[in-house]
Amino acid sequence: MAQVPSPTIRARRLRRELRRLRERTGRTSEEVAKLLGWHRTKVIRFELGHSRVMTKDIEALLDIYEVSDEEREVLTALHRQARQKGWWSAYGDVLPDDYVGFEAEATVISTFESLYVPGLLQTEEYVRAIVRAGRSTADQDEIDRRVSARLGRKVLLSRDVPPALWVVLDEAAVRRVVGGPKVMRAQLARLVEACDLPTVELQILPFAAGAHAAMGGPFTLLDYADSLLDPTVVYLDNDTSTLLLEEGQQVARYRLMFDHLRAKALDPDRSADFLTRVAAEIPD
């Protein structure tokens, strides 16, 4: 399966380019807005992604920024791609943030999980058990949509060139029996299989490792093919909110944390053996 451009990534790239072009002219966002007869905050809202950029707005900005024909062609194409719909748009009611769009074009995904098996490696039964536990008042249709949306993410691993996935998984996530013994054994078996995939590195962080750098919670680093056009983002998630971090210092901090976790965790071969032992220890 070939990779298709992510509109989320293209929209982010367009915002960054619009800011770069404005700064190249030496103008503030308020000055550009005044020249175009817009509200003074309109330009900065475009650059932050708080407002949708319409075609006429792009054309007006490019005129003000005096871009070359080549630049105009590139930016017009970016705008067109940013307005397309990813498969996840059909699940906007159950995928409320932009994470899937950012994940869709990542070339390297580095994630630490402390409570759950990472979504890309979850079995359907495990997903369903988690959704039911977290949405006790949801009807069956909502549960099915949430399960379908989560499973849809796994198409990443079937691409012609799948992303490199590096997972550090806390022992707590594999010890907690989710969905009952049968479901959990199947989930652990899936993790053992994943250890053999050429694009997956899976490490277990055992309780014996003691205190570690990420005791504040799980996180994911998303890296892209061109780090200049698409810098790394860090994704933080909990039950009530999500956060995307893009500043260089923030990203560097989490990358260092991930390196520390990798150093403390079991190596991939020992992790596969560990998972096999845990599955055998689950009582009926």
TrEMBL record:
It comes from the Bacteria. InterPro entries: Cro/C1-type_HTH (IPR001387), DUF5753 (IPR043917), Lambda_DNA-bd_dom_sf (IPR010982). SUPFAM superfamilies: lambda repressor-like DNA-binding domains. It holds the Pfam family DUF5753. Residues 18-72 form the HTH cro/C1-type domain. This is Helix-turn-helix domain-containing protein.
